């Protein structure tokens, strides 16, 4: 371990995966709200 290494920085692909999961969960939450509104109006 070199002194210049970052502290426990997650690898790039892990950060990308977390990013994607976060976006997916936001999208799912919005889709649920939209579905409830549509069902409520229907």
UniProtKB/TrEMBL annotation:
<keyword id="KW-0812">Transmembrane</keyword>
<dbReference type="InterPro" id="IPR058070">
    <property type="entry name" value="MmpB-like"/>
</dbReference>
<keyword id="KW-0472">Membrane</keyword>
<keyword id="KW-1133">Transmembrane helix</keyword>
<feature type="transmembrane region" description="Helical">
    <location>
        <begin position="20"/>
        <end position="41"/>
    </location>
</feature>
<dbReference type="Pfam" id="PF26627">
    <property type="entry name" value="MmpB"/>
</dbReference>
<protein>
    <submittedName>
        <fullName>Uncharacterized protein</fullName>
    </submittedName>
</protein>
């Amino acid at each position: 371990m070199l002194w210049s290494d970052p502290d426990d920085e997650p690898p790039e692909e892990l950060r990308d995966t977390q990013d994607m999961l976060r976006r997916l969960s936001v999208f799912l939450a919005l889709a649920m709200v939209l579905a409830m509104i549509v069902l409520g109006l229907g």
